[in-house]
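Internal ticket - ligand job 286, pantoate:
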Amino acid sequence: MHILPTIAATRAALSTLDGRIAFVPTMGNLHAGHLSLVEKARELADHVVVSIFVNPLQFGPHEDFAAYPRTLREDCAQLEQARTDFVFAPDSAEIYPHGTAATTTVQVPELSDILCGAARPGHFSGVATVVLRLFNIIQPHYAVFGEKDFQQVLVIRRMVKDLQVPVEIISMPTLREADGLAMSSRNQYLSPAERQCAPMLAQVLHKLKQGIEQDGERDLAALEAEAAQTLQAAGFATPDYVRVRDAETLGTPDPARPEWVVLAAARLGKARLIDNLRIHLPETFV
Ligand code: PAF
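stdout (structure tokens):
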């Protein structure tokens, strides 16, 4: 496995390759969820490239950029085990040579302004900007993302389509701990008591999904409000959102389009947790 700190070294190494490249962008601090993306990349292509870069542009001024766990050595050991070929691990000056304030950015309107985008202004522009930059550096045939960041995947798909980026976006299901908590690097911010409470996020989403799919519930606003109240009663702060949306557009769900998703984001102590579940509308839902 080659660890490449610069764009020049990465381009030089990748330009000599024959065959297809699959790419997994990460911010490091890898867990089994990331490794499942690497495994998928391995299946898809001849060469696997993983990037590790904690992207300052996608963090708000009062967010956890400084505290975000940086574990390059351990990450590289795990990636080597997972048969990664190349790790691109640049520093910030390599990606943003003029600094983050003066950099060219990518905006994906509408999709970026709702849900997590409303709670974290500028976040998805930061994500789209770095991901496009990484795509231009790596020039992969495939890029693999986790569906825990459901809105992120839609933003990236839209960017790739609008800007005609020649890469196929693959998304993979969320990996969960035994108690249902979605795996996330931010779970380590939880105290032992908060960690006990955290699976409640997945539980309220399951209940809401079941209400729609199996019990024929129709009042989505009531379901969303009940889920938010349950989270607060369990110790979460007022959720940023709990919403049922169309799974393709994140717009208001329409019974004529049966693929929905329920998404939620809420703070528990220092951690902001997000999760989502797909909902397949039964044919009887009218
Ligand atoms: O999902 C993440 O870890 C990040 O948002 C990404 C896609 C690596 C961009 O920094």
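Auto-summary: The beta strands are 2-4, 21-26, 47-52, 86-88, 142-146, 168-172, 241-246, 259-268, 271-280. Residues 25-27, 55, 58, 127, 130-131, 149, 152 surround pantoate (CB under 6 Å).
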